[in-house]
Amino acid sequence: MARQQNSAHTLAPPLQEESLPVAEIDDAEIQTVVLPVIAKGPALDGASEDGQTDAHAEELNFDEQFYPARPARLRPRARLRVWPWQRRSPGSGPATGDNPDYVQWLVEESMLGDAKAFAKQFTGQGSMWQNPFADPDPRAAIDKAPVWFAAYPISLITKAGHSFLGTMGDQDLWEAFQSIGITAIHTGPVKRAGGISGWDATPSVDGHFDRISTQFDDEFGTEDEFRAMCEVAAAHGGTIIDDIVPGHTGKGADFRLAEMGYKDYPGIYHMVEVPEVDWHLLPKVPRGRDSVNLDHETEDRLAKGGYIIGQLQRVIFYEPGIKDTNWSATAPVLGPDGKLHRWVYLHYFKEGQPSLNWLDPTFAGMRLVIGDALHSIGDLGSGALRLDANGFLGVEKSTEGGPAWSEGHPLSEAANQLIASMVRKVGGFTFQELNLTIDDIKNTQERGADLSYDFINRPAYQHALAMEDTEFLRLTMNLARAAGVDTASLVHALQNHDEMTYELVHFATLHAGDTFTFRRRPISGADLATRIRGELVERLTGDRGPYNAIFTTNGISSTTASLIAAALGFRDLTRLTAEDVASIRRGHLLLAMYNAWQPGVFALSGWDLVGALPLDRKQVADLIRDGDTRWIHRSAYDLMDYQPDARHSSSKMPKGTALYGALPDQLADDSSFISGLRDILAVRARYGIAKATQLDVPAVSNKAMLVMVHRLEMGDQITVLNFSASPVAGTVMSRHLRPGSALVDMITGVTVGQIDDLNSCYVQLGPHEGRAFLVEPPEEAAD
Predict the structure, then answer these.
(1) Phi, psi for 396 (deg, rounded to 5)
(2) What is the 3-state secondary structure (H, E, C) of 160-192?
(3) What Å distances lie between residue 34 and 52, 79, 80, 260, 367, CA to CA?
(4) Which end of the chain is least crowded, N or C, by CB within 10 Å?
(5) How far is Cα 386 from Cα 127, in angstroms, rounded to an integer?
(6) What is the rounded CA–CA span in Å between residue 614 and residue 233?
(7) Rounded Cα distance, 611 and 581, in Å
(8) Do the Cβ atoms of 118 and 417 come closer than 8 Å?
(9) Do the Cβ atoms of 754 and 761 come closer than 8 Å?
């Protein structure tokens, strides 16, 4: 039940005195050097002989934009570098706002301070106008990176004596990736995260997604190793994808300066200062902590007092007594003005992840994020960026009695357009990994990120596997197509670092009251979401899958292999036979076919490549104590058998069981998961399926079957999949199939059938088998 929000007079805080002057970085001391890079194609006109230009051109390939004569896209590369990039060591004086040395150290450590330096390297440069940027271009992104390896730094067992970044730039690894068909690495979070307490760093509270710096975390490597990785990737036709977080930071230097009320740093965040006269409205902060989460009563009291906008549409990561609301209050903090300050700040996620304010008059948050993006694309040499938490960039007080407008806000769309346009201006592309409604994905396709993570169909294909019934999957796919979502704009993924998400926000929120037809009966969106979640939990956790775990209200913590094991009824993963592993492998390859044999990006993780199983809860007891069960599926893995005797990664993540083994052994085995995946990706690349157009997801004669019809440059294509562990047979029918057309198996190249006069054909499939067919029209039709 919504809590009442009454209009009340705002208790205005007293005017602040001018902050004490603290020295800032002298712009005159900033120098630049141009780094040598590997570049495709000739230099642009005006390039010097030594190659020191703003950008290098790829082979001529004009964008199919509204204006066809726009210049070719430019390949991102490491080019401008702030030098010397020296950081002062932490001092030993008092870590308080009245110590100018401490404040200056925080300024030098801050992301906002770095953003100012980065922006200066691009202002007034002709290279900023060489790329189209207004419209998202998913197919241009696919051209650069059609198949992604999603890394998770703390889980990778590295090459002996090498860091994570050093290992990701290993020639042998890239040769293996190239032979499989992997064209990009999404590194995951590799820069410093967590917080600062006094002069000391504090650990990350969310797997390094609470960024506090543009500097790399020493645990993962150096800037030079990142640049070298980019060059090795380019030499193998690959791309590196980095991260920025437009929604929040950790509690680093920027937040500590904001707490002090220093200059425009408070403008970075959604934070409101509460004057001392009203501190009685705030909860006490326990000793040893710097903030405390507000309970519902305090949230309502501060909203009525005019300080905050109160309840939001939902509380992500809700945990009673730990995170009751999206607001927290700070302890008193001494500022350079000699006064104590207390604040209430917004955090959509954990308490250590304060949310950024995209519409503060200082635009400090915007400047911080844009500077971070320029650094990654223009300085480090990344080709693309993941936008994390980018759906929560606008929040506004709603009508009386209702929660604040915090999701689907137009400001989020506007901010995403700014970020994505800036990245396109410097030659990169962006993707968003956020659980959105189909409507939101369609809207962002118009102006925002180039690609969106497919959170609509991801739980649906897992439901199809669990239930051996594709009806819900066909429903979600057809809803997306009917809404105008271009399938090629989606990132179709197997496992990543997060849980198997089953929030089904499209049905549970915006369309909760709409009526859908499911299993021949009408059902509301809200009830449909509840039913699907219930069936997923029943089939994939509990007695059927005790090794998988529910993660709050978000989804199921599991690996792809353990989801398949539960769907197959394997209750004890320690007693799997060779036949059981082969059954899991078949299911895994089926899911790879579903994701790879349709338009869009295909992504998978190291856990997928080695067939990882979840860790025993006892192995990560400290990490899951607060309810974050995702750590059970983040086991360490060794892709190349770098350290066969290792029992954990360098970040101390325990090594998990790998059903399939390391890449070299799998590449030498024609029956392995990797060999099967290589064949799937070869078909995808040979026929250009990634850039196709999805024409139809028709009804099927057997509920376990899924059929997808696509338009390729060379003709039409059919993907037929069996989501059952038993053989199936049925008719494939679509109005897009021309009678008399021949069916050619895309793996063998053999003609195996013909489309009849009912626009159909008959197909037989083994357990968890998938087939791809090229539809060759009859000669008279072709003529």
Answers:
(1) -150, 145
(2) CCCCHHHHHCCHHHHHHHHHHCCCEEECCCCEE
(3) 6, 5, 5, 37, 24
(4) N
(5) 23
(6) 30
(7) 9
(8) no
(9) yes
Residue closest to 7 by CA, chosen among 255, 304, 301: 304
Q: Which residue in 333, 353, 355 sits closest to 343, CA to CA?
A: 333
DSSP symbol at 506:
I
pLDDT at 121: 86
- Give alpha helix (H) positions in 576-668: 578-596, 606-610, 663-667
Q: 135: burial class by Cβ within 10 Å (0-12, 13-18, 19+)?
A: middle
Residue that the structure tokens 């007695």 belong to: 543
| Distances in whole angstroms, Cα of residue 699 to Cα of each of 211, 409, 749, 759 | 46, 36, 27, 13
- Ranking 127-141, 346-360, 696-710, 722-736 by mean pLDDT, the lowest is 127-141
CA 139 – CA 134 distance, rounded (Å): 15
Residues 6+ apart with CB under 8 A from 765: 705, 720, 721, 722, 727, 728, 729, 771
Q: Which residue in this structure is represented by tokens 């020295």?
A: 23
| Cβ burial, residue 511 (10 Å; 0-12/13-18/19+) | buried
Per the CB < 8 A criterion, the answer to whether 205 and 251 are in contact is no
Residues in the chain: 783
* pLDDT of amino acid 275: 97
- In the prediction, which pLDDT does 65 show? 40
Asked whether the beta carbons of 114 and 155 are under 8 A apart, the reply is: no
Helix (H, G, I), strand (E, B) or coil at 344: strand
Q: Kindly give, in sequence order, each residue whose CB lies less than 8 Å from that of residue 437, ignoring residues fewer than 6 positions away.
A: 408, 505, 506, 509, 510, 511
Burial (CB count within 10 angstroms: exposed 0-12, middle 13-18, buried 19+), residue 277: exposed
Q: How far apart are CA 332 and CA 279, in angstroms?
A: 10
Contact call for residues 613 and 657 (beta carbons, < 8 A): yes
- Per-residue pLDDT of 466-498, as tens digits, reads 999 999 999 999 999 999 999 999 999 999 999
Higher-confidence residue: 19 or 777?
777
Tokens of 759: 């626009």
User: Under 8 Å CB-to-CB from 9, ≥6 apart: which residues?
Assistant: 306
| CB count in 10 Å sphere of residue 27 | 9
82: pLDDT strictly greater than 70: no
Asked whether the bond before 84 is cis by omega within 30 degrees of 0, the reply is yes
Place of tokens 């410093």: 192
For CA atoms 664, 669, 670, 674, the dihedral sign is negative
Distance CA 542, CA 357 (A): 41
| Residue where the block lists tokens 């059902």 | 523
pLDDT in tens, 597-656: 999 999 999 999 999 999 999 999 999 998 899 999 999 999 999 999 999 999 999 999
CB 151 within 8 A of CB 651: no
**Degrees (nearest 5) of the Cα angle 650, 652, 658?**
90
Percent of the chain with pLDDT over 90: 79
Burial of 543 (0-12, 13-18, 19+ CB in 10 A): exposed
The CB-side HSE value for 697 (13 A sphere, CA atoms) comes to 24
What SS3 class is residue 233? helix
d(CA 18, CA 29): 27
CA distance 167 to 708: 38
- Residue 433 tokens read as 């990994």
CA distances from 677 to 180, 375, 496 (A): 7, 35, 17
**What is the value of pTM for the model shown?**
0.86
pLDDT at 19 over 60: no
What phi and psi, each to the nearest 5 degrees, are found at residue 75? -85, 125
Q: Of 59-73, 540-554, 725-739, give the lowest mean pLDDT range.
A: 59-73
Q: Which residues contact 782 (CB under 8 A, 6 or more apart)?
A: 776
φ/ψ of 54, rounded to 5, equals -70, -30
**306 is written with which tokens?**
């005019």
